[in-house]
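Could someone model flavin-adenine dinucleotide with this protein?
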Amino acid sequence: MTGTKYVFDDIIVGGGLAGCLMAFELISNGRKVLLIDEGQAHSSSAVAAGIINPITGKKYIKSWNIDLFLPQAVKTYREIEKLLGITILYEKNIVRSLPDISAENQWESRKLDENYTNFIKENADISDFQNEVNISGNLAEIRQAYRIDILTFITSLCRYLEEKGGFLHHTFDVNLLKIEDKQIGYLHFSASNIIFCEGHKGIANPLFPDPGFALTRGEATIINIPESRISKMIKDEIFLVPFGNDLFWVGGGYENVSYPEEITSNHKKIVKKVISSLVKVPFETVEVKSAVRPTTKSRRPLVKQHEMYPHVYYFNGLGTKGSSIGPYIAHQLAQHLLSENNTFEIVW
Ligand SMILES: Cc1cc2nc3c(=O)[nH]c(=O)nc-3n(C[C@H](O)[C@H](O)[C@H](O)COP(=O)(O)OP(=O)(O)OC[C@H]3O[C@@H](n4cnc5c(N)ncnc54)[C@H](O)[C@@H]3O)c2cc1C
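Reply:
Sure, complex below.
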């Protein structure tokens, strides 16, 4: 391509969880990757708790395709830890309150179902920290649940790529993209493929119009509970997630998207009230954050190959479950890019 100075195998636009998982899969297979990101501070990935919860909802059913996604997720995050010399995968049970008789019955029936055995702890146990939290009634405890430290992952991966000349801090302008038969050109860069992983901003990507988003905004409050012994994730009206060093992530609210993304003082008051009723000991609010999740109408991810340009891809719509779904999609898409196949079809 004329004027090109830097040649890559793949360009990835967006350095949130999707883009970084994609980059990891590709560099692990020897590809030369350029990751472009304009700043992750307000991305969904930077605000997320990173929970992988195998049993969800009021009916306590398995999360979509969890038996397929979980083994790949654990494998991928362990490999990332090894490559980057960081810890990001924490196995932590989830304790949930069972609010009424119907919930108790549902949970008891799951206990009898052998497909759920791996995910259920027979007797929930909060004895180590019951003087710190207020969860009433009977409890359920979910095993094989995890927390991914997404922020450490994405910042470490971008630093790793930067050291190798594979990261560009820049706002990608799709109007400057040159798509040729078998090549992509952008500024002084060229590549064989481009993968768009722009999170909620992908709604405005003209190459993939009307992708099917139903965006939602979520808030997270980071609190400090001095000398806390809370070691499990707790799901009541909200989620309380141990982040280490006496810090806890609290959140889980949903709101159809509204711009601008500021947190209202009213919201802060509500959250503080809810936290105060769950946490029995003194705590301090450290930070309140907000972001737009790339949620979709179908509640399924958006993984596409462009109809006219087969070397242009879209990896988005991770919704509320990026930590568990992301690694599987990134693996599948990377395997396709490494293969000789022209057409990409994800196998669920
Ligand atoms: C409050 C909250 C709690 C959550 N909790 C969980 C949870 O517990 N478990 C879970 O699995 N998921 C959770 N999520 C969802 C999770 O955050 C997402 O599934 C996932 O992180 C989405 O990643 P992404 O890379 O698709 O998008 P994003 O994280 O939004 O990343 C997109 C990136 O693209 C970049 N970008 C966009 N446009 C451009 C451009 N033109 N040029 C350059 N860069 C660009 C942005 O800077 C950003 O870094 C939560 C989300 C929120 C908001």
